[in-house]
Amino acid sequence: MIRDIVVSLSLGTPRDASGDFAMSVATAVEAHLSGVAFAYEPIVGSMMLPVADASLLDAFRTGNRRAADRARQNFDDATRRSGVLADSTVITATADEAAERFGQIARDFDLSIVPQAQPDGDIAETLVIEAALFGSGRPVLVVPYIQSTGLKLDRVMVCWDGSRSAARAVGDAMPLLRRAGAIEVVTIETRERRNEVAGAKIAEHLARHGLNIELKPIVAPDVEVAETILSHVADASVDMIVMGGYGHSRLREFVLGGATDSILRSMTVPTLMAH
Predict the structure, then answer these.
(1) CA dist 78 to 24, 72, 85, 144, Å?
(2) Domains in the chain, please, with CATH?
(3) Helix or strand holding residue 35 (H, E)
(4) What are the Cα distances from residue 200, in Å, to 35, 111, 179, 219, 269?
(5) For residue 49, what are the β-bridge partners?
(6) pLDDT tens track for 187-221
(7) What is the rounded CA–CA span in Å between residue 127 and residue 112?
(8) Helix axes 54-82, 17-29, angle to 10 degrees
């Protein structure tokens, strides 16, 4: 069951897609929702602040604090109007500190919801996604920055490769899968298997839970996995992806697997990941 959700609020955008989507999820599963807005501290020596100019530092802090306070206020107003039980907080931190802090915060929740990093945005949102995915031990639902609708589960796509991360994602997504109209278990192979249907066992397992399952093996020898996934999402009118997230840490920097990184950059529908 999902009863406690935390969402990282977007700053400086006309509409907070992740906050709005999180409210729709909380409403659907009758969960409490906590919003976190980060007031980012300046990092001297960065592209934004190459030198330690006091006036620039103050302006940067003031602008970020106002953006965070505004995001929090908008979130509070929206949850109050929608009747969602919620709380919110503003945390002051550098981008690295904010990511680490959110990963720690997410450990105390059933699910974290985070916005996809915008193409022209800074690294902060990407760091938060990675920290939530690899540092929380909890499932992460990434919301596209173009998302304009709330939770919809008419057709859910489970990306299955038999890995531990994929199995974890399926288990973590079960409260949402039970609400799905139809579920496609999609496998992507470089060549057709003989006398074996990839994904048959997990499809059978999910069917035993009373879920409406369709097994969809895709043979794509010369196509990138992420490209194949996103193409099928569009063709099948998929509302949500469930998949394992891959990567490892190196000197506290996260290195994402190729498919994970590509999906996070090009995703068009909400994607639940687990590691």
Answers:
(1) 11, 10, 11, 19
(2) 4-143 (3.40.50.620), 155-274 (3.40.50.620)
(3) strand 32-40
(4) 39, 28, 21, 15, 25
(5) none
(6) 988 777 666 677 999 999 999 999 999 999 988 77
(7) 14
(8) 30
